[in-house]
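Kindly review both lines to help learners:
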Amino acid sequence: MTELSRRAVVTAAAAVGAAATLPLTGAGTARAQAAAGSKQQPGFYRYKVGDIEVTAVTDGIRQFPLPDNFVRNAKKEEVSAALEKAFLPKDQMIISFTPLVLNTGGKRVVIDTGNGPAQGSVGQFQTNLAASGVDPAAVDTVIISHFHGDHINGLRKADGSLAYPNAEILVPETEWAFWMDDAKMSAAPDGMKPAFQNVRRVFKDVGEQLTKYSWDKEIAPGVTAVATVGHTPGHTSFVVASGNGKLFVQSDVTNNPYLFVRNPGWHAIFDMDGAKAEETRRRVFDMVAAERLMLAGFHFPFPAVGHIEKDGSRYEFVPTYWNPVL
């Protein structure tokens, strides 16, 4: 058996580096120049759950300095170490956003809508949706998991009109009851009041397009709503099922998986009830791991689908292999 020695690796790397410094001429130069660019190609990825076609469509990423209290019950140094272990910048948070589009054969269903109009590296959902061949006017149903801005703001275009003019908009009735309660908005801390106001802005004059749904019911073909509270009072996940295929859409049960899948006891700053969110997370991941279900995570690295492996009291996210065919 041939052994790969450190000397061989270093020698090979040096040879590649030397080759990279050689001048390119003729057609090779033209090809290299043409390939240069500052943006990725449109981001969408399709896979099947039984007969349901799922399209993961990226809304982009948000990157910002790691706050001292991003994890409420862990020291910043511990969080930095976890990021570094995952080969991520130890002083930066990177959060991905991936809404889903389902083609059930009879209906086109969008689950969550992203951050809204383009704003730097986020707000890319509509651009990538168009690239995937989906016309927002042809969407039959939009399902909302909860009312944080990165999930609902995409219901509106930059001019304030509805992004999905012909779609029924389904929202969790428990979530609606909380955020539309004027008494709760008045009693909320000042830092939370803008979130209440944003909910009212997004859902203003939606009228007959809006329907409130309850848990443990099929709310669209092959889509069942599941209570996963803690992140918000009405936070909802979904089971997408067709034939022998099943996908658990966890919404925001977990934020960045390299922090909160590997450390399920950590409470993210975004979780309104950290203890309840942890309880939900452990329950969901125990179930998903035991049943070996595919899992889609809104804030997981694109295309945000894989499995959960249980390792003692911890878990690990195992990405699904990219598949060139459906």
